[in-house]
Write a structure and sequence with these properties.
The protein is mainly α. Helix content is 35%, strand content 0%. The protein is elongated.
């Protein structure tokens, strides 16, 4: 077998093409059930998740309400 020429080496890239050349991507691993994975695939997979993240608004730190967990409000009678 012959070795690729210098021009082939320069134009050949390994791996998946970047989504946006101006910002590198990272791999994120998320645990979910098989049923959730199936639903994620039907919703659009990675592109759907990225769109949702891009559209989401971050809560304002002063007006953000605690989500879940134990805030102690029930114990204080509020």
């Amino acid at each position: 077998m012959t070795e690729p020429s210098d021009t082939d080496k320069k134009t050949r890239r390994g791996g998946r093409a970047p989504l946006d050349a101006s910002s590198p991507t990272v791999i994120v691993s998320v645990r979910m059930s098989e049923k959730q994975r199936t639903k994620l695939d039907k919703l659009g997979g990675g592109p759907w998740v990225r769109e949702r993240i891009d559209r989401a608004r971050l809560p304002d730190e002063e007006t953000a309400k605690p989500r879940g967990g134990s805030s102690g409000a029930k114990r204080r009678g509020q």
